[in-house]
Amino acid sequence: MIITLRSGSSGRGSHGRGGSAWKRAQEARRHERELREQLRAAQWEVRNWEAASEGERKVAAKLHILTRHGWRLLLDRRWPGTRSANVDMLLVGPGGVFIIDVKNWRHAPEAADGHLTAGGRTYDREVDKLLKVTRVAENAVSARNLSPVAVQPLMVFAGRSVTARLGTVRLLGEREVTPALIAERPRLRPSEVRAVADHLERAFPAYEDTSAHIRSATPTAPSEPGPDDALFDVEGIRNAAMEAARSAPIEQWMTFLHPDQLALVRRAWSGPARVSGPAGTGKTVVALHRAAYLAARTPGRILYVTFANNLPRVQSTFLRTMAPAVADRVDFSSLHAWAGQFLRERGVASTLDSGKAGDAFSRAWKTHGRGTVLETLDAAPGYWQEEIDYVIKGRGITTFGQYAPLPRPRRRTNLRRPHREAVWALYEEYERNRTGKGVHDFNDILALALDEVLAHPGATPYTSVVVDEVQDLTFVGVRLLHALVGDANNGLLLVGDGQQAIYPGGFRLSDAGIDVRGRGQVLRKNYRNAKEVLDAALAVVADDSFDDIDGTPTTGRRDVDLTYGDGRVTRFTAPTRAEHDEALLAALHALGPEAWPDSAVLCRTGTERERYRRLLTRAGIPLITLEQYDGRPVPGVKLGSYHRAKGLEFKHVHLPDHDAPATTAPSDGTDDGIARERRELHRSQLFVAMTRARDTLWLGSVSRP
Ligand SMILES: Nc1ncnc2c1ncn2[C@@H]1O[C@H](COP(=O)(O)OP(=O)(O)OP(=O)(O)O)[C@@H](O)[C@H]1O
């Protein structure tokens, strides 16, 4: 027998606002009366659901309370594609879509060690069946652009009090289910609830036995006495309604995806895959939904890695908000933090000390850098340290024979043999000094971890690895992550954009033995930036063509479809730094305190960041550094370097002194390779910083003679 229950009312639960305790108590009593009346009405509505057991009817009555809070409840639906299988209930509301299996068991359920048992019997097949029908529902709602994260399997136990989880399946008792669902963070608006529920109503049709079909909007109140039901948690419902009313809806992108994004999230890849696309095209959004999707389907864990160490905290907060059921199955980490932890777990000795490693390089430069041919190209040691870090060690080069003919992508300076010999001598001296001090640098940590993984395949619990901002990783870093999962189906997903490379050097995936042919996708729709902002940013890198890590040559000015609204770019040039800084403060004050939490001041260097930390603090503007920020809203301006802003976005972005020269132009007027290379890198960094702005971008300059 089928019942489709609807309710016209969708208001949030009312709650006491009276000034006095007496008034509040009155209000609570009135609300309790209301809820009990609603329950009685709901029990009346489900009384004719003959196919259901008494227990199912009781659960349906409890869930029917939700229809007063904007939910739609579909009872006893046909499972599409099967002859006789049914789905107990489908529930669609502000909190998303729930696929519900009601259990009326004699024994209390227990979820332990990945199994569902009751009275000594195992009920794993019931769980599998629920997961299967959840997949069917996910498929159905993908036509409405809903991500699978919005569809949740739920087992409700009639006559019981239960709160547990078994993998992605939520287990709730008759008592807990209503308050738990009311308290869900809102993700669907009323019109979306309607559209999704209508869609599911068609996809999961009702049985044809119309004699049993009841559609009642306003039930007649039954004459029986009110329920005295210990499994009706009036206070829980009231508190949940208050909590839901307080919590802001989650971001649209945490529920709805563009069909191209959704296809990538749900795709079966037969090996390593690559998602690329210009800034703001939703690559990270795809990566997060993909991680959640895989976590719901594989028994192993998922590793989600980026280079920057502040980003994993933010991304973890996002995943926990959009897919709490799987959040514990995804490990977010920066690559180096993960590698260090892995070595400790495996008992491999390592002594990371970048300070002492830096000293080892300085000493090597004094004896093997100064006065050599290297100084004729660049007298400052920084470039040569980068050569060792990114070109030699970053690419796992261990012999001069490998280094001598090595192509150096993104290094514009041509090094002839004498230069390479000098670099190699410098490198060897650095290694001698470093090992003499008994310390490792960051590259060593990755190399040690790679050796360990190659020596003990299967040493980690990961079935999939998602790499975000892959363009920032070194060759050894990418090889390490590839080694964790190899070429397994749905194993490695590399997400990033070569145009946003902010570190020197480069490599090709094919050199690392990673073949993504036929498994690459480019996203083109920008969801983030106002046209004015994107145009200004693209103008900075328009002439800088680049080779992506998959080897594709790409021009600086790329085709992007814009979806975002209007914006504004303000350019301000001051004669002095003091006046420039005054103008920055004026711009922040003009936005006002309400806008500060969604505003950022981004700086070229750490020293600059300190300067602006002092300036904002003196001006009484609250701030939080990007190192502290974890993705949760905080009442202050975000302050950080361009590097730390990677992967983030803000409504309003301010870039003080944004066009300070990266390097002084050579005095003889020639534009040598190293200076050119530096300026190019700085343009990429500026491009990244500018594209963090959604609506407004403030570009400060100081006029220099
Ligand atoms: N399907 C979507 N619906 C609505 N907004 C979206 C969608 N996808 C992405 N966005 C918006 O676009 C923003 C940019 O997405 P995301 O950070 O994933 O882009 P990206 O390509 O990784 O950017 P970048 O490379 O610049 O870091 C998101 O924060 C979100 O606000």
From TrEMBL:
Residues 1-27 are annotated as: Disordered. ATP binds at residues 277-284. Residues 51-164 form the NERD domain. InterPro entries: DExx_box_DNA_helicase_dom_sf, DNA_helicase_UvrD/REP, NERD, P-loop_NTPase, UvrD-like_ATP-bd. Pfam families: NERD (PF08378), UvrD-helicase (PF00580). Residues 10-19 have a biased composition (Gly residues). Keywords: ATP-binding, Helicase, Hydrolase, Nucleotide-binding. The keyword Nucleus does not apply. It comes from the Bacteria. The keyword Ligase does not apply. Residues 256-549 form the UvrD-like helicase ATP-binding domain. This is UvrD-helicase domain-containing protein.
